[in-house]
Amino acid sequence: MTEEVEKVSLHVYDLSQGLAKQVSTSLLGKAIEGIWHTGIVVYGIEYYFGGGILETPVGTAPYGTPIEMIELGVTKIKKDDFVSYLKEISPRYTHETYNLLKHNCNTFSNEVAQFLVGTTIPQYILDLPNDVMNCPLAPLMLPMIQNLESQLRDNEVPQVLQLVAPLPASEGSKGEGSEVKPKKIHEPLVDPLGNARTQVQDDIAKEFAALRAQGTLSPSEAAALATRNVMQKYGFLDSTSNSNSISDSKSDSKSDSKPNSKSDSKSS
C-alpha cells in the first residue's frame, strides 16, 4: 500500500500590490520587485506568521490573491505531527518576537519548509530585508517600515503605500463581527516625507554630486554620506549618533582631495 503524501506549496504575496516595483527606484535608489509575505500551504490550510502562528483555509488569506504559488514538494508527515511541531516552535513566533527585518513571515515559512520537505524558500524572498536596508535612501524609509511592522505584528492588513501626505482618517471599518480573520481597513503606509520628497531628493542629488566631485568616495559611499547629511538637515536622523563619522568622512575626503595627493586620485 502506497504511503500517503501531502503536497506542500508556498503562497507569495506582494504587500505593496505592485507599487514597490513601480516606485522603489525613486524612493530607495534601487529596484525592489515587491514587499513579500509568504505562507505555507499544506493539508488544505495556509500557515503563516504575524502576531503568532496563524492558519486559514486555502484561498481565504487576508492578503488577497497570491502573485505566485511555488510547489515545494511533498511530505509524509502527518497533520497531527505537524501541529505538534508548530506548538513546539510557537514560543519563537509570537507577537513580541515579530520583526519585519529579522524575524518575519518569511523566516517562519523557510523553517517550516525545511521541516516538511527539507528545502528552503526562494533566496530572493529571504534577501529582501537586506536588499532594502542596503539601499542608499533606506534610512528615510524607517518610519514606514516601523509602521508596517506594527500592523503586521497585530495581524492587520495594511493598505497600499501612499506617496503623498496622509489624508484625514476615514470612517471605521464595517462588519465588526467575530470572524476568525476579519478583513479590516487599516491606515495606509504613508511616505514619511510626503510632498517634501522632491525637495529632499534634489538636495541629496546636489550633495552627492559635490561629494563625488572631490574624487575620493565611491558612488555608494557618496550616496550614503549625502543621504545622512540631508537627513540630518531635515531632522530625520539624530545628528549626535552619526556626527563623528560624518565629520570624519568629510575631513578625510577634503584632505585626500588636495592637489598633492596624486596617489589618492580615483577615476569615476
From TrEMBL:
Concerning InterPro entries, the annotation shows: PPPDE_dom (IPR008580), PPPDE_sf (IPR042266)
Write down the PANTHER family for this protein, in alphabetical order: DESUMOYLATING ISOPEPTIDASE (PTHR12378), PPPDE PUTATIVE PEPTIDASE DOMAIN-CONTAINING PROTEIN-RELATED (PTHR12378:SF82)
GO biological process, alphabetically ordered: protein modification by small protein removal; proteolysis
**SMART domains assigned:** DUF862 (SM01179)
Composition bias of kind Basic and acidic residues appears in: 249-268
The family annotation for this protein states: Belongs to the DeSI family.
Q: Which GO terms describe its molecular function?
A: peptidase activity
Coiled coil regions, renumbered to chain: none
Q: Which organism is it from?
A: Lactuca virosa
TM annotation in the entry: none
Residue ranges of domain PPPDE in the record: 6-146
User: What Pfam family is a match for this entry?
Assistant: Peptidase_C97
UniProt biased composition (Low complexity): 238-248
Q: What are the start and end residues of every segment in region (Disordered)?
A: 237-268
Instruction: Supply the name of the protein.
Output: PPPDE domain-containing protein
Identify the keywords attached in UniProt to this record, alphabetized: Hydrolase, Protease
